[in-house]
Write a structure and sequence with these properties.
The chain has helices at residues 28-38, 67-86, 99-109, 139-144, 158-162, 171-176, 197-205, 213-219, 221-234, 264-274, 299-315; strands at 3-8, 15-16, 19-20, 47-48, 90-95, 116-122, 181-191, 209-212, 237-242, 281-287. It is an alpha/beta fold and 317 residues long. Strands 4-1-5-10-9-6-7-8 form an eight-stranded parallel beta sheet, sandwiched between helices. It is globular.
Amino acid sequence: MRIVPVLFPSDLGHSERGRWSTGGERGAPDLLLDVLEGEGVRFAPPVPVAVPEPEAPDEEDAPLKFDALIAQAVTALADAVEAINAEANFPLVLGGDAVTLMGHVLGHSRRHAGGIGLAVLSDAHLDLEAPGLPAWDDKAALRQDPERPRTGDAARMALSGALRLIPEAHALGRVMAGSSVRTNHTSVAGVRAPTTAQIRRHEKQLPLENWTMERIEFDGESAYRSVLTQHLSRGPIVLSVDVGGLDPDLMTAVRGPVPDGLDWSFLKRTLEQCLPHVDRILGLDICELDPTRDDAHQGALIRFAETVAPFLRKLGR
């Protein structure tokens, strides 16, 4: 089995009141690949996936910003992942923003229509928003109205897309209707960002395992690992790492850092825990890395690569 890097430089999932909000996510996949190779990870030739750029801002109150463009990009990523699967190789999707997760799981779903699991090993947000009139800074609406997302950005709808919560009235919803991710085979670790009425409603509807930082600290890391082992043993399963789930004092190369978070050792131990189940792991995606926020010596990027490289080296043997 060869590890095939898929370079998906998406930053369409972030906007500022409808305007495409460019960031370092677009250059992150190539840079991360170079650093991982410097850590001794051997890869097959990378597969680039083109991501379109908007020609104009979207409407400020669009319920799902850049819907058609994101659906196009997600479909292209799914095509690349499906092709790698067909050759019995392991896709390592190095993405920009959290839209990466949707294309990754969609590609695997095409070959595993009976259902797949999803283990998000690190994420600060529970990305269960759905299209609706953005509330922006209306705190009352965010607390009380389950129909309204914060911004309408697709990056905060990644898990909703994987779990088919985006209505098919939207192009992205029609594309993600093909996802076969099972809710009761889904876990997320590291969540601590403020929640909203919409996210709370969706979480109540779904039997997924949400391991917030508070829950990990209260119940203990061993309890989380027990649930993760159960999910890994059921396979097939997709792994996902959003670097925003790491403590921003350690991982500085993130567009929107959220206080607190997971440390390097947690991520390293979690990846090591996945190795005995490698025959059931379909692929890994890494997203939300923004090298422009790193220090001059790329300290956070290098430490992140040092953390995940041992897992990848063992995987590629």
